[in-house]
Design a protein that fits this description.
The chain has 311 residues and is an alpha/beta fold. The protein folds into 2 domains: 3-186, inorganic pyrophosphatase (n-terminal core), CATH 3.90.1640.10; 191-310, Roll (Diaminopimelate Epimerase, Chain A, domain 1). It has 11 helices and 11 strands. A 6-stranded mixed β-sheet has the order 6-7-8-9-11-10. It has a 5-stranded parallel β-sheet with strand order 2-1-3-4-5, covered by helices on one side. Helix 2 (26-41) runs antiparallel to helix 5 (138-151), helix 4 (121-133) packs antiparallel against helix 5 and helix 5 (138-151) runs parallel beside helix 7 (178-187). It is globular and about 55 Å long.
């Protein structure tokens, strides 16, 4: 589906629910909020699904778009949700339109606006809003900047490209205060996060002549540091710091005993292909999955599978 077809579809209906993914990040939350704002400007009723896992730092930006209790929606639009197993617990139903940038989007719907060449869903939503409303408001520009900046690690990740910087330059030119956003999201962290980073860095393990780095984060570590869900944002980037590591894995123990895996890769190694073995997916350079095992067992399984895939 191209942008014009997506707009034609949106214009046919009303009463939209925008669905973000579980363990939401800045891209899904702020992209969905910006699109919600644009839908309202175009005369539609629109709200975000209630996502109980929303980090505190984003609530100031997205709470005004969250659906009130009892909201009756007609059509659901997923934003930055790659697969149905990533729906939050508060959503059940079918997706009518999927807006995403993940190449392996597997949501079952006849209407998909998926653009893998963009670093974030924020870039896709930016272009969709322009097609829908012909302009972007200052509020939407701020939301989209947060979406793009958080999904690119403040433009440090490998997914940052010409399109990313071109889009961001237009948002900054509009007058958003990118300086305060960068300080809030990338320069300042809690004491609990600093303690947790120290524990992660001191316990990173290496495999295959240091080409694989693995950081394991247990529930005990999180409790000892007094960390919250806010303190875990972008925690997967820590395993990527060792020089020479080509596959960087973060394994976080979930409350149900399973392991949430985030993988980053370099030099043409496909993270998505590796994570797909465990039912996950994502981008070539960044992907994830969930393994029904404790972190230690999950680590052994991942290293074994990496051997198989690379061979």
């Amino acid at each position: 589906m191209d942008y014009s077809a997506a707009v034609d579809y949106i214009n046919k209906y009303d009463a939209y629910l925008l669905v973000t993914h579980a363990n939401p990040d800045g891209d899904t939350l702020c992209s969905a909020s910006a699109l919600c704002s644009a839908l309202r400007r175009s005369g539609k009723t629109a709200y975000l699904v209630v996502n109980p896992e929303t980090p505190v730092r984003y609530k100031d930006y997205v709470s005004q778009y969250t659906a009130p209790e009892g909201y009756k929606w007609n059509k659901a639009i997923s934003v930055d949700v790659a697969s149905e197993d990533l729906f939050p617990k508060t959503f059940s139903g079918f997706i009518d339109l999927a807006v995403d940038h993940h190449p392996g989007n597997s949501i079952r719907t006849d209407n998909k606006l998926v653009r893998p060449r963009y670093s974030s869903c924020g870039e896709v939503v930016y272009r969709l809003i322009l097609k829908l409303c012909e302009d972007v408001t200052d509020e939407e520009a701020l939301l989209l900047y947060i979406a793009i900046a958080t999904d690119t690690g403040c433009f440090q990740y490998a997914n940052t490209n010409y399109n990313t910087l071109e889009t961001v330059s237009k948002l900054i030119k509009q007058g958003i205060d990118n300086r305060s956003i960068n300080i809030r999201f990338f320069r300042k962290v809690s004491k609990a996060r600093i303690r947790l980073e120290g524990m992660v860095y001191s316990s990173i393990r290496y495999y295959k002549e240091d080409s694989i780095s693995v950081a394991i984060i247990t529930r005990k570590m999180i409790e000892e540091c007094g960390a919250t869900i806010d303190d875990l944002e972008d925690i997967a980037s820590l395993a990527c710091r060792p020089d020479g590591a080509k596959i960087c894995i973060t394994i976080r123990e979930r409350e149900d005993g399973r392991s949430k895996v985030s993988m980053r890769s370099f030099d043409g190694i496909n993270s998505s292909e590796i994570c797909a073995v465990f039912g996950g997916g994502g981008h070539e350079a960044a992907a994830g999955c969930t393994i029904a095992a404790n972190p230690e067992a999950a680590c052994e399984m991942l290293v074994s599978v990496i051997d198989e895939v690379l061979r």
